[in-house]
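During the no-cost extension, the postdoctoral fellow (Dr. R.K.) reprocessed legacy sequence entries with the updated structure-token encoder. One reprocessed record is reproduced below for audit purposes.
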Amino acid sequence: MDIFRSPRAAQEAHLHGAQWLIIGLGNPGPRYAHTRHNVGYLAIDALRGITPLLPYPGAPATACRTTIDAIPVALLRSTTYMNESGQAVAPLARELGLPPERIVVLHDELDLPTGTTRLRQGGAENGHNGLKSLSAELGTRDYLRVRMGISRPPKGTPVVDYVLGTMDDTPELHSGIEHAAEAARLIVSQGLARAQNEIHRR
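Re-encoded structure tokens follow.
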């Protein structure tokens, strides 16, 4: 072991060998920490536990490595704003040599009730700017998605104001975050079809 390596270099090496990349979408900084757009960030926090996220060289992101059923996994949160999320994901996916079916994205979903989790591979982005950026930077829509319901805004409330609004701390919110984290674990350990069967029954 080279004791003279910098912490940043050590973090870069630590992710090597990861067989999956799990990304939580959101906006950085305390202003956005508890907004609806940031539920993906919160699901990554549930997955990582006490393992810290550290800056990742070569990408605007913080990351850590964990294991799911002994499978090495990289967990990632971008440090870009939502509409530039792909700039954080694509360099790391290329460096790790991961195909889209090994990339799992956790993100907010207006078309699902708060607390509901649904899984799929590919498909349209439905106006979600974070997903649009990912698709553009990765050159494909075929990555896996953990869709975290935040419900539609009340009539007369602009979508932008709603997704950037602070969430109420409710049991539905907490269960949704836990279900999304569990969904990501199931995808890695059992595959998408089995994960869908388990999560979609709820």
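The mean pLDDT is 91. The first strand starts at residue 20 and ends at 24. The remaining legacy entries will be reprocessed before the final report is submitted.
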